[in-house]
From TrEMBL:
Places the protein is found: Cytoplasm
Protein name per Swiss-Prot or TrEMBL: tRNA modification GTPase MnmE
UniProt: (6S)-5-formyl-5,6,7,8-tetrahydrofolate binding residues: 19, 83, 122, 453
Enzyme Commission number(s): 3.6.-.-
TrmE-type G domain location: 218-375
Keywords linked to the UniProt accession: Cytoplasm, GTP-binding, Hydrolase, Magnesium, Metal-binding, Nucleotide-binding, Potassium, tRNA processing
Binding site for GTP: 228-233, 247-253, 272-275
Gene name as annotated: mnmE
Subunit structure: Homodimer. Heterotetramer of two MnmE and two MnmG subunits.
Enzyme class: hydrolase
Cofactor note text: Binds 1 potassium ion per subunit.
Organism: Agathobaculum hominis
Length: 453
């Protein structure tokens, strides 16, 4: 924490940003940046862009750009900070970093800026984790949820529950310290009411993780079907472009083709697979084996059937692989005369969609059905969905300990029985806010961040 650190915070475009934090941040940037107005950068107003020239470690002109200083404690990390906003080429950014390193600055580690913000009480641990979610968000909805959590949607709620439990525990401790005093039964009633409310809220938050995980990671979805059922055409229609090769020759698709498709509010991670059939071709068989394995691990199966043909043995393989999974039967090729008897499909699939992947007719119904099939309808993304597995596990533990404390309070057990479980819940909630988390956990969390954030 005593070191001054620097890293590239943005690159790959016309503008690059180098971020510096620590006691020597402003001085180090002042050593390599000369304001055009002739005044020292160290005397510049905080949070005001200054135009000037950037020099390399040998003092040679490197770029004409901007710098800005941020003075503690009103900064992201809580320390003095400075940024260089220069042209975004790798050569310029690398030379600028080398110049800073020559003045005693070191390379920041992954997530070190946000870690310093957490350690300096600029944000809680849940807010810090939301920063990572915001950086890695793949949909607008995921970004909205992460942004709300970064502003305290989870941390504030958890802190409020933790504070109330701490107050309750303190009251019980006072009773334990004075055993000669009669215990007011209202104390147990009030504790039970608080624990009941808190337990319900914690379970709701923990149970939102399944939907939150879908929001963050997307839904693994596999397209299954016999050869020439229209799987690749369906993938192309979903994407709105020609991604997979489509021919009348059976076995054209032999390997997995993976693409992301936005469907409503969710990201669908779609995999097109080899057509399921008996084959003597070892390459095609390898593709079929991979299709089977992908279907087993998938959260949603789009089982494609050729409506212009009767059910055959190859379709039975699709039916068998779809059994026990969330699946939608896609009765394709409705633009052709229909021969498929739907009765067998109705026995296994709750939903059958008639469509023509070739013309797009029926796609709207499929797209509206997919989110509902996986239990993800329209919702507001206000940070209420827990997207972090560590937080979800801590919430579940806190809920279980609150529930045990509630049982103790309702049964009129001794105060220490209520206190023991309530303190367990408080500790679990502290893992979310960061107040009781171990150093090893903190290190692991920030190691997943990118360098420069």
């Amino acid at each position: 924490m005593n070191d001054t650190i620097a890293a590239v915070a943005a690159s790959g475009g016309p503008i690059g940003i180098i971020r510096v934090s620590g006691a020597q941040a402003i001085g180090a940037v002042s050593a390599v940046f000369s304001p055009k107005n002739g005044s020292p950068l160290a005397e510049a107003a905080s949070q005001k862009l200054v135009y000037g020239t950037l020099s390399d470690k040998n003092g040679h002109l490197l770029d004409a750009c901007y710098a800005v200083v941020f003075r503690a404690p009103h900064t992201y990390t809580g320390e003095d900070m400075a940024e260089i906003q220069c042209h975004g080429s790798t050569a310029v950014l690398t030379a600028a970093l080398d110049a800073l390193f020559a003045h005693g600055v070191r390379q920041a580690e992954a997530g070190e800026f946000t870690r310093r913000a957490f350690l300096n009480d600029k944000m809680g641990l849940s807010e810090a984790e939301a920063v990572h979610d915001l950086i890695t968000a793949r949909t607008v909805e995921a970004a909205q949820n992460a942004a709300a959590q970064m502003m305290g949607a989870v941390g504030s709620s958890v802190q409020q529950m933790r504070d109330k439990l701490l107050g309750m525990v303190a009251h019980f401790h006072a009773i334990v310290d004075f055993p000669d005093e009669d215990i007011d039964p209202i104390l147990f009633d009030d504790a039970a009411a608080l624990l009941h409310q808190t337990t319900s809220q914690l379970y709701r938050m923990a149970e939102s993780y399944e939907r939150g995980r879908i929001l963050r990671e997307g839904v693994p979805c596999v397209i299954l079907g016999r050869p020439n059922a229209g799987k690749s055409t369906l993938l192309n229609t979903l994407l709105g472009r020609e991604r997979a090769i489509v021919t009348d020759i059976p076995g054209t698709t032999r390997d997995l083709i993976e693409e992301n498709v936005k469907v409503g509010q969710i990201l669908l991670r779609v995999t097109d697979t080899a057509g399921l059939r008996d084959t003597t071709d070892p390459v095609e068989q390898a593709g079929i084996d991979r299709a089977m394995a992908e279907a087993s691990a998938s959260a949603l199966i789009l089982a494609v059937f050729d409506g212009s043909k009767a059910i055959g043995e190859e379709d039975m393989l699709v039916l068998a692989r779809s059994a026990g999974h969330r699946a939608i039967a896609v009765l394709n090729k409705t633009d052709l005369p229909q021969q498929l008897d739907e009765e067998l499909l109705k026995k296994q699939f709750a939903h059958i969609v008639h469509l023509s992947a070739k013309t797009g007719e029926g796609m709207d119904r499929l797209l509206s059905l997919i989110p509902r099939t996986i239990g993800f309808g329209e919702t507001a993304f206000d940070g209420a969905l827990i997207t972090n597995a560590r937080q979800a596990a801590a919430l579940a533990r806190a809920a279980e300990r609150c529930e045990a404390a509630l049982y103790a309070a309702q049964c009129g057990m001794t105060p220490d029985a209520v206190v023991m479980d309530a303190e367990g819940a408080i500790a679990a909630l502290g893992e979310i806010t960061g107040e009781t988390v171990t150093e090893s956990v903190v290190t692991r969390i920030f190691s997943d961040f990118c360098v420069g954030k």
